[in-house]
Protein: tRNA(Ile)-lysidine synthase
Amino acid sequence: MHSDRPLLDTRRSVRRALAGLPPRADDAPPLVLVALSGGADSLALAAALAEVAAGSGVRAGAVIVDHGLQRGSDDVAARAAAQAGELGLDPVLVRQVRVASAGGPEHAARAARYAAFAEVAVETAAAAILTAHTRSDQAEQVLLGLVRGSGLRSLAGIPPVRQLTPECVLLRPFVVATPEITRETTSRACARLGLTAWHDPHNADPAFARVRARERVLPILETELGPGVAAALARTADLAAEDAAALDALAAAALDRVRVTSSGETVPGAALPGETGPDAAVPGESAPGAATVRLDAAALAALAPAIRNRVIRRAADAGFGAQLSREHTATVAALVSDWRGQGPVFVPGIRVTRAGGELRFSAQIGSPRRGRTDEPGVASPGE
Structure:
């Protein structure tokens, strides 16, 4: 490989990502921040952004989040900030966060980090924040999803674009780069630029499933099945993302068709959440005056299961901000596909009943029981 190839590839991927940013109303260059940890991936991304920013018509800065989970984390953050300044990034913002204990260390750290990103995006009016997930990360994500029996949306892996705030998008240029950008690419880019990367000890800790997948499982698969397994897993994410997007679009249209208004009619374009319900304030039942989402049960039954399940999840999310697992979705879907006159079911934050040919979703008061599922065990991501 030519020594400049990693630099060219990383810069090309950032240019492509920035090309999709809308112009500001005042024609001023939009601010783009790179999420910088000091590791090789984010350093390579920071260097690429610094190089292409002017030509792409953006201002380039950096945001560094100190999770405080390791001794000397403040020194690591200060060093990353210094490297960002040396690359010419401005502004360079350092945020210290408190990581909660609930949900596991990886999940809690990620939640704190992205909350900090959102706050910084609002404070600085940033148009985009770039993160340095690579195709290597994508392969690991898909592998972990497969062994957990996840559905299509989970197998789509790490999305290259998502809305962080109403005015700021989160971009991951290396996830969809062509040619592929892996950890080897970013390490070579840093070496070519003389950048010394920080090595996060958590990335070598076998207590984390992702580390075991990276250090133990993938090498065995490459040895036993031949080279290219990681690249193939990452391609699986691309294909799954395309199919998931198509199914999600079909589900959105289907939800529009099966939505029942207060007049008892299915009216396309009816907005969520639903009408105000009169239910009494009984623990575990609907709150008085709470919104109720109503879906036509017969119309739901006519849908293919993959679309029906997505409609149920969309109704729960749009109406109540609830993210239903596959097991919770199946519990609700049984009111349609296996209707035997059963009573209400409870999923996190929502009471779902079938009455008058409708599925009715309403917010619970209190939590008299956890979301019931038909099968025991840990909930896996839905499709």
